[in-house]
Write a structure and sequence with these properties.
Blueprint lengths: L5 H22 L8 E8 L2 E8 L23 H8 L2 E7 L2 E9 L12
Antiparallel strand pairs: 1-2, 2-4, 3-4
Helix pairs in contact: 1-2
Length: 116
């Protein structure tokens, strides 16, 4: 995995997967073929992952600060995302939602280009 911290890469993968699962399950109600757009950039030693969907705009206050208990249906995705990221927010838009995940990015890699 080049020199980049494998723990950072794993945290990005897990958090991204949780967001996509939540969009698919709750935003798109398990409907296949709906678009999800992902952008990744490094700014000021922060890896910023922007994820856009075209689901109905949500109200993040309804679920983002809620305490969840594990169940057979999951219910731990938001807690996992919060634990793995530096910060996390969901912004409702006119035609969908914008989820932003921020991760600390090691300074020594901030100016390098990586392809994965």
């Amino acid at each position: 995995m080049n020199e980049l911290d494998s723990k950072l890469i794993e945290n990005v993968k897990i958090a991204t997967n949780e967001v996509i699962q939540n969009i698919y399950r709750y935003g798109y109600m398990n409907e296949d073929g709906r678009p999800i757009e992902i952008h990744l950039i490094v700014k000021n030693e922060v890896l910023v992952l922007d994820i856009y969907d075209q689901a109905d705009p949500c109200n993040p206050e309804d679920f983002i600060n809620k305490e969840y208990t594990p169940s057979e249906n999951g219910q731990m995705g938001i807690a996992i995302i919060k634990k793995l990221t530096k910060s996390f927010k969901i912004i409702p838009m006119n035609h969908g939602n914008h989820t932003q995940l921020n991760f600390d990015f090691p300074k020594q890699f901030a100016s390098k280009n990586f392809l994965y």
